[in-house]
Write a structure and sequence with these properties.
The chain is of the alpha/beta class. 27% of the residues lie in helices and 26% in strands. It has one domain: Vaccinia Virus protein VP39 (Rossmann fold), CATH 3.40.50. The protein has a seven-stranded mixed beta sheet. A two-stranded antiparallel sheet has the order 1-2. The chain is globular and about 45 Å long. The N terminus is likely disordered.
């Protein structure tokens, strides 16, 4: 995969990467992917000075772009390889999909808000990432026409593991999602599928916006 152009804040990016390493992100491929994707393209102009701050930032439709450490941590825990097909539930700004695209063969990302999906498509096109498909739809339904997926990542909190996503996970595949009550503290859970059975491992505590059921929203 060709390295993509990055923004002008080289000092901010360098400090950003050092902060990720200090917090335990050690996978060289993940760090390279983070370096290649200009985060400032994925935040609103009013937050451009905070693009490399380690905190979540608001985006349209009441959603957020996740804290950079959480993006890096989830990406590392997902263990994406160059031959993998990845499903992302919750495109948001498109930042996580962009990171994944630097590591995977193909990324399918589903967003329920038309405003967010269209904005993310524009950013992805501008940056020239050609292995990402952004769909408008119900994330809980996944993308059965493209299944099975080697990796699935959910970037909104579910109260239970969505059965349709388990079904679409390849044997030997891994799914990562925040699991827990809406409005409360959740935990990142890594789900591994083997011979049709799943095992779960709880990881760090997080706080995500809720994963909402239903068809795409025209907002």
């Amino acid at each position: 995969m060709t390295k993509q152009p990055v923004g002008d804040d080289s000092v901010g990016r360098m400090q950003f990467l050092l902060a990720m390493r200090r917090r335990g992100i050690g996978d060289a491929n993940v760090l390279r992917a983070i370096d290649e994707v200009p985060r400032e393209h994925f935040v609103g102009n009013e937050f451009s000075d905070d693009a490399y701050a380690d905190r979540a930032l608001p985006i349209a439709c009441g959603q957020t772009i996740s804290q950079p450490y959480v993006v890096a941590y989830m990406t590392e825990q997902l263990d994406v390889g160059p031959g993998h097909k990845v499903l992302e539930i919750g495109t948001g700004s498109g930042y996580q999909a962009a990171i994944l695209s630097r590591l995977a063969h193909e990324v399918i990302s589903i967003e329920r808000y038309r405003t967010l999906a269209e904005a993310a498509r524009g950013r992805i096109a501008t940056l020239g990432y050609q292995n990402i498909e952004i769909r408008l739809g119900d994330g809980l339904a996944g993308a059965p026409d493209k299944a099975p997926f080697d990796r699935i990542i959910v970037t909104a909190a579910a109260e239970t593991i969505p059965p349709a996503l388990v079904e679409q996970l390849a044997d030997g595949g891994v799914m990562l999602l925040p699991l827990g009550p809406h409005g409360g503290v959740q935990r990142i859970v890594r789900v591994t599928k083997s011979s049709g059975e799943i095992t779960q491992e709880e990881l760090i505590g997080v706080r995500f916006v809720p994963l909402l059921p239903g068809q795409a929203h025209e907002l």
